[in-house]
Each structure stands twice: as structure tokens, then as C-alpha cells.
Amino acid sequence: xxxATLLLLIAQFLTAVDRASAADPFxxxxxxxxxxxxxxGEQIYxxxxxxxxxxxxLNNGAPVLLSTVGTRGVRDPAIxxxxxxxxxxxxxxxxxxxxxxxxxxxANRGSTSLVVWESTDLVNWSAxxxxxxxxxxxxxxxAWAPEAIYDPASGxxxxxxxxxxxLNGVKKHRIYSTRTRDFxxxxxxxxxxxxxxxxxxxxxxxxxxxxxVGGFRYYRASADGQITVxxxxxxxxxxxxxxxxxxxxxxxxxxxxxxxxxxMWMPVNGRTEWTLWLDQFATGRGYMPITSTNLGSxxxxxxxxxxxxxxxxxxxxxxxxxxxxxxxxxxxxxxxxRPINRVQSFNVQDRYVRHxxxxxxxxxxxxxxxxxxxxIMPGLADSGAVSFQSVNFxxxxxxxxxxxxxxxxxxxxxxxxxxxTFRRVAGLASSSWSSFQSYNFPDRYIRxxxxxxxxxxxxxxxxxxxxxxxxxx
Length: 473
Fold this sequence. Notes:
Elements: H1 2-23, E1 26-34, E2 45-49, E3 55-57, E4 74-81, E5 88-94, H2 103-108, E6 113-119, E7 129-132, E8 144-151, E9 156-167, E10 170-180, E11 190-193, E12 203-208, E13 218-223, E14 227-232, E15 240-244, E16 250-251, E17 258-259, E18 261-267, E19 274-280, E20 286-292, E21 302-303, E22 315-323, H3 324-334, E23 342-345, E24 352-356, E25 359-363, E26 374-378, E27 386-390, E28 396-401, E29 404-409, H4 414-419, E30 422-426, E31 434-438, E32 445-449, E33 452-456, H5 461-466, E34 469-472
Parallel strand pairs: 16-17
Antiparallel strand pairs: 1-2, 1-22, 2-3, 4-5, 5-6, 6-7, 8-9, 9-10, 10-11, 12-13, 13-14, 14-15, 18-19, 19-20, 20-21, 23-34, 24-25, 26-27, 28-29, 30-31, 32-33
């Protein structure tokens, strides 16, 4: 009896700790996004901000999570926190235009699944998995721009996204929704937002106003020709149109002006204020912020000029406020700004390892200089070894293929990890320099031959000199 009572008290204490941590004040912000249709742009990138307006790229501007399922690419990520603050999910569109997929194929014959990652601490994430949200929608062509929000009325999460399908004789994108408790099992999908006539809608996002400033508990911004703002007191109930941003010269194309998409809400920490980020895709200028202290009227929005988005282009994503504990974990994992190095040849000391058109060689007088600059990262296959990440192509690594070297975008595969990992050992020609032994071919080392970088067995003095390098600033 005593033991059972103690277990109950311990359980109550742990629950209280979880709730207290979830109620801690917010001290920063985390943005999940993708960067575009480049070879590695359709993956998960993270950025951090202290004030919500000035952002720094995490992980030295390289992707943090890679999709190895479905189309092997993701766009439009949303990041979700559980009410207790003890679990997190990232959900994203399963789409990779960079693979050569046309927009028509993507919209009409694309994936009906979302890609899902799960974490208990924001820094250690599960392997990606597919969640088929639109498979039960008749004629569904895709599942794009997913979002999710916890619904306290039902104790579960509402996932909502856009699907292109025919309904009542009209084929267009509508917003559908489903319910889930674990982002694994879902209810049957249902139409959530359907604009009149042929007007489609792809991007919509909901933000909560806990004190119902403006008259509603929830507000949503949707890209439906305008950037339309609506309010409601229930997530799946009736929504009231509040207005749009056409008076600010901002639209989703219906009235021209600054044509934007991907509305992304950000509650401002510690204040009754919201920032709405809008992607200026038509001009390629990236996200811009507007702010409001009362979402009950679109006339309350104001433009912001003092902001910066870091070094990477940020496309449609999501922003989550961070507690101090969350912020510390995220920055300890991905906020380390690793030094920039060059790799100098031992026996041709005016030459450095560089990439040129994704081939790898040693050259003198490298221009642009960043072609010969790398960040030495923990090994992709073994954290005690090293991998070489390009400075001007974040997310690209030196790897061997058929014992030749290339600069290639990391694809998340075990083969890539092994090919791009090396053990740093005492230099074969001089112990004060370094040599780099292959992780998956330990009888071979990185060396130059006719100035080209190769992976070879080393059997003589010439080879030992060719396989010896200095790591310099």
C-alpha cells in the first residue's frame, strides 16, 4: 500500500514537472523551413532568433533533417509541441521538385502522404515516416503545406493540409483536416476550407489568442487570392471573415501588388502581439514580417523594416517559441559555429584541397576562396572521425565514389555516410601533419595524384607525401 502511494506521488510529481516546464516563459524562437528547389534545398533547415525578427541559421546553414522516405524531399514544414512540452513533431509536404518532378505531376499524381519526425527533446529526432493523410480522398492528387494544432476541446491534434481533388464537379486545391493523438493513426479526412467557385487554397495557418484579444480565440491566415484573415472560437467550428491585406498592397495574386504566399504566424514572446510572416515568392525576396496587437481587424497590421533572415533563403515553414531549456538544447546541438579551415598539401604547399564544378583537386590561388574552405564536422558515420563540409555549399561533403572524390549533397544514406567519413591520423610523411584514412576502406587514404584527389592504398614515399595534409585556418 505504501509502495503504491509512493509511486502515485512520484507520478504526480513528474507530471507537475512536465507541466511546469511547458509553462516556463519563452526566451527565443525556432524556425523550421526549406530553402528552394536546389539539390539539397527541399529538406529541413532550422534557424534561431532571440527577438523574432533577426535570425541566425543553425547547423552552419546546412539541413538538420533529411527525408529518406517517399520522394526523398520535403517542403513546407510545420513544428508542433505537445501541451505538456514533452513531445514534438515536424510534419512536411512529401515533395522534391529538384528530382525533376513537374508541378503538374506533383499536383495531380503526387504523394498523398506527409513526412513526420518525432522527438522528446527537439534535438534527437526519429527516422522520418510517411503518414497517408489524403489517401482516402477520392481522386486526391497530392497533400501539400501541412499544419497541426492541439485542440483542447477534444484532447487531440487537428492536422490540416491542401489536397487537389474534384468535388461537386470542380477540381482545385481545398484544405482538408483529420484528427490524431500520435501522428500515426488518423481519422477519416474531411473538407475543412472550400472557397467559392474555382478559387483554390493551398496555404493556411492557425494561431491561438489565449485571452481572445480581438474577439476570437483562434485566427487563421490563408492564401486564397488574398491573404485572408478569419477568426473563430473553435478550431473545426464556424469561422468569421475579418478581412484581408489588400489595403496594404499585399495579396496572393487576386489584386496584384506584393504577391505573397505561405503565411506563417509567430506570437511575440511576452507581449500581446503577433507577427505574420509572408513569403514574397513572386519577387524572390523571401519572407517579410507584418505585426498586429489586435487580430480582430486587419487594419491593425503594420509593416516592419528592421529584420534579417540569415544567410539561407527561407521558404514556407513554421515558427515555435522556445523556453530557456529548449533554447539551450537546440543551440548546444546546432548553434555551434564551427571554424572554417583549409586543407593544405604537404608536398606541394602552395596548393589546397578545393572543389571545382563538384570535382575535387588541389590548386594554388583558389578563386573564389570559399571553394577551398571547409568545416571539419563530426564524422557522418562515426562521430569520433571527421567529415568535410563545404562552406559555400552547406550540406555538401567531400566523398569518394569509385575511389575518386566529388563534392556531393548529403542524402542521408549509410553509403554516403561511410564514403564521407575519415579517421584523422598522424601524417604518413610527417607526424606533425595529418593523414585521413577512409572509414569504409581502412587500407586507403585521401591523397592527390596529378593534383586530383583520390582514395588509394599508400605503399611508397611519394604516396606518403601525397597523403599528408595540414589543416589551416
